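Researcher: I'd like a candidate sequence for this fold, 182 residues long. If you have to choose between options at a position, lean toward the conservative one.
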C-alpha cells in the first residue's frame, strides 16, 4: 500500500511543480511587456546607408569616367616606383642609407627572409605591397619551421609605405609598434 501512494506522488509532485512554475512565469513575464521602439535609430542608419551608397556610386562613376577619358595619364609601375623613391628623404627619416626596393627596410624581414621572397619573385616594395598576408605566410612556410614564428600581417602595408615614399609614416608606425614587438 505504501508503494501505491508513493507512485502517485512521483507523478503528482512534478506536475504540481510544473504548473506552479508556469503560473509564476506567466505573471512575471506579463509584468515586463515593455516594447522598445527603435524606429528612429533604424531610420538614422537607413539614411546613413543611403548616403554611403550614393557616395560609392559617385566614386564608381568618377573612376569609370577617369579610366575612359585618360587611360594613358595613369603612371606605369616603373614610373611610379621611380617617382616615389628618394634616397635622401629615406635616409633623413630612417637614419640610415636605404637602397631602392630593399625589403629589409620592412620591420621583421631580414636577409634570409628577403631571399625567400626573392625566390617567389617578390623583389620590390611594390610587389610585396600587392601580395596578401596569406601569400607572405606561404613564403615563410617554404623556408621551414624556423620562419613560421614570424608575423607577416603588416609587411604589405609597410612595403606600401616604402613604395609610396611615406618614410615619416613608416618610421612612426615602426616606433609605435616597437619595431615589431608590440
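Model: Candidate sequence:
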Amino acid at each position: 500500500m505504501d508503494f501505491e501512494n508513493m507512485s502517485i506522488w512521483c507523478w503528482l509532485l512534478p506536475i504540481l511543480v510544473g504548473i506552479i512554475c508556469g503560473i509564476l512565469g506567466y505573471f512575471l513575464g506579463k509584468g515586463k511587456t515593455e516594447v522598445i521602439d527603435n524606429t528612429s535609430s533604424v531610420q538614422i542608419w537607413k539614411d546613413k546607408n543611403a548616403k554611403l551608397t550614393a557616395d560609392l556610386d559617385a566614386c564608381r562613376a568618377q573612376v569609370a569616367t577617369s579610366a575612359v577619358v585618360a587611360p594613358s595619364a595613369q603612371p606605369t609601375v616603373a614610373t611610379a616606383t621611380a617617382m616615389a623613391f628618394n634616397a635622401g628623404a629615406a635616409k633623413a627619416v630612417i637614419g640610415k642609407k636605404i637602397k631602392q626596393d630593399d625589403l629589409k627596410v620592412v620591420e621583421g624581414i631580414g636577409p634570409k627572409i628577403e631571399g625567400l621572397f626573392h625566390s617567389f619573385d617578390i623583389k620590390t616594395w611594390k610587389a610585396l605591397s600587392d601580395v596578401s598576408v596569406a601569400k607572405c605566410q606561404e613564403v615563410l612556410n617554404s623556408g621551414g619551421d624556423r620562419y613560421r614564428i614570424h608575423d607577416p600581417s603588416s609587411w604589405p602595408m609597410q612595403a606600401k609605405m616604402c613604395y609610396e615614399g611615406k618614410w615619416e609614416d613608416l618610421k612612426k608606425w615602426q616606433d609605435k609598434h616597437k619595431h615589431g614587438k608590440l
